[in-house]
Hints:
Transmembrane segments: 12-29, 41-60, 93-117, 145-163, 175-195, 215-237, 249-274, 310-335, 355-380, 386-403, 423-445
Shape: globular
Number of helices: 18
Strand content: under 5%
Main location: membrane
InterPro entries: Na/ntran_symport, SNS_sf, YocR/YhdH-like
Subcellular location: Membrane
CATH architecture: Orthogonal Bundle
Order of helices and strands: HHHHHHHHHHHHHHHHHH
CATH topology: Hydantoin permease
Pfam families: SNF (PF00209)
CATH superfamily: Hydantoin permease
Number of domains: 1
Number of strands: 0
Amino acid sequence: MSAPRGQFSSKLGFILAxxxxxxxLGNIWGFPTQTASNGGAAFVVVYFVLAFLLAYPxxxxxxxxxxxxxxxxxxxxxxxxxxxxTHWIGTGVxxxxxxxASLILSFYTVVAGWMLxxxxxxxxxxxxxxxxxxxxxxxxxxxxxxxxxxFALVNMWIIARGIENGxxxxxxxxxxxxxxxxxxxxxxxxxxxxxxxxxTVYLVPDWSRVTEPGLIIDxxxxxxxxxxxxxxTMLVYGSYLSKQENLPGIGVIVTLVDTSIxxxxxxxxxxxxxxxxxxxxxxxxxxxxxxAGPDLIFQVLPTLFESMGAIGLLVAFAFFALMTIAxxxxxxxxxxxPVSTAVEQTGMSxxxxxxxxxSIIFAISSLLIFNFPALFVFVIDLxxxxxxxxxxxxxxxxxxxxxxxxxxxxxLREGSPQVEKGLFWKIWPAYVRVFCPILILITFFHSVSG
Length: 450
């Protein structure tokens, strides 16, 4: 039976939902291209190490606060505070997290709309609808509004259905589909000419680069952001987690699943880039770095699909289905942050709160579309470059300094009665208080300074 505010019905449901939140568009193309630009396998090794040195402790901070408070991010941070000052700071941090999550979703909706439009393109090609195909693949205000609006409606429909019937049900359906499509595409791409060159770049390490400060900082940032930390999504998901679950153990599983999917995505993207290179596509920028981001998705990979002949339409359809699914699983977690806050702070029904807030966020998306690229780039920088790291520091400090140590231990004992005898309790409390915030701030200042 569900709790009145909703609860994940199983450990698997939570893991797939949390992994879906973490596995977004940035993981699919961001991690692979960073890897190729930073020493190949050397970057992968550093990334995996730092995922557990930095991202895992920060993830645990959000999960513990969320499950302890059983509330949205605003109420949770305010309720664990010991005095009026920390209460007001916690409430302010919570509201800022809600705003940032909403702004991230506003630009994410635009990008996801691009993926959705390109997903429909192969269908238009097969049906001989050349005008529709051109419209779907050409950047325009009308296309971006329609595709983004459709994507936003899908998100709202899922969130309006609640935790078990919405987030959990669709995460347990979409994540296996994502993995199946990913594996099938990898198998096919690895048979294409040029794929082995890309695989070598991805898997053969340049160990001389392991100690480069730039590589370490890039891996640190990727490890932190890949787990969808810093805006309260994992805190909210943690609040829906059963008290019987072992939090340190489940955090390890989520971290492993996320980093593993990022690694598997690299097995698709890097070989695909070099297959496109084999067919004459320019894959490096003027500075010698691999093309990344939208240019990779919409310039490099279409050449690969075209080189495949008729089957290229099927591969393109599967690839953009993969990208759309990754976008959905991430977006629903971001929409849940403001929706859970509205429902619990105002008493508004979940469907009404979802469609109201979802509409407001899409209105912001529309503003970005009409004022692209000035506002688009500004919102991305404000949220991902400046706000997420600082919010991540705040969550660590609240878990380490504000939440009373006895309450912290009691929460961990709920699903792991002997937790204080283990390595986690001996290391994590001090680590999240001092080292984790310092490492995140190092990443932040490096990012800001360029």
